[in-house]
Design goal:
258 residues, 2 domains, single chain
Length: 258
């Protein structure tokens, strides 16, 4: 598969800014990469937009720019020329473009210092920032039930969010509704339960679409760590060895299971 300049730029953005998803995309079948790299580059640009400035209005404007781009894709007319938006328009249908607007909207939480309202708000944040990305990728590659994508995305998003807790606290955020060790354990167990639920329905996912699930290959081991030693979350020690990361991704790529 030949990459044009835009796809190459997307891949380079992901390689620099989101090495885990870059590794997952490179482990996917070659044909899937033309779908995954634009989506992952879009996700990276949206995720970091709130952190590029301390001015909330400017951050809001950055997110609105992406919402406007998605609306152009959804409408099916002229789409702005941009190294990420242009290839993204070739990947998304109208429904996926509309649903990814939820992802951008959820990132408004990252702009401000308000805590999550409650557990339902936190769950919605993870489903919209991680689950909707999995769903868009899965549907661009084949068939993927919404529930499978949201369950897998929740588990993957939770694992990565728990890894980011110390950094978020350093930046003045209140990342967890309840940060007590027992609450962290309960949260991680919920993530594992949803991951198991997604795995149980893997047969309903088209084989090509399973490449969209590879980015969550670390979720299970990381969430198990949080269950066994919840203090690792606060200490910033929720992580896998490089050997375990590599072998886990290789196993997921070969078996199609996350």
């Amino acid at each position: 598969m030949d990459f044009d300049d835009d796809l190459t730029a997307c891949a380079q953005l992901v390689e620099r800014g989101d090495p885990d998803r870059f590794a997952a995309a490179m482990a996917a079948p070659v044909r899937a990469r033309a779908v995954l790299f634009p989506l992952y580059a879009f996700n990276l640009e949206v995720a970091r937009a709130p952190w590029l400035t301390q001015e909330s209005m400017i951050a809001e404007m950055r997110l609105q720019w992406w919402r406007d781009a998605l609306e152009e894709i959804r409408a099916g007319g002229l789409v702005r020329r941009h190294e990420v938006v242009t290839p993204l328009a070739h990947v998304l249908d109208a429904d996926s473009a509309e649903r990814l607007d939820r992802l951008v909207g959820a990132r408004r939480w990252d702009i401000y210092r308000d805590a999550f309202e409650d557990e339902a708000h936190f769950t919605r944040y993870l489903e919209e920032t991680s689950g909707e990305l999995v769903l868009a990728a899965g549907r661009a590659l084949g068939e993927m039930p919404e529930d499978v994508a949201l369950d897998a995305g929740y588990a993957s998003g939770l694992a990565q969010f728990l890894r980011a807790v110390p950094e978020l606290e350093d930046k003045g955020r209140v990342p967890l509704v309840d940060g007590r060790p027992e609450a962290v354990v309960a949260l991680a167990k919920e993530g594992l339960a949803r991951l198991d639920r997604a795995r149980a329905r893997l047969v309903e996912v088209d084989t090509p679409a399973r490449a969209a699930l590879l980015a969550g290959w670390q979720a299970g081991p990381l969430l198990k760590q949080a269950v066994q030693a919840p203090q690792r979350v606060a200490e910033g020690m929720l992580q896998l060895s490089e050997f375990r990361r590599r072998t886990g991704l290789m196993r997921a790529a070969l078996t199609g299971r996350i």
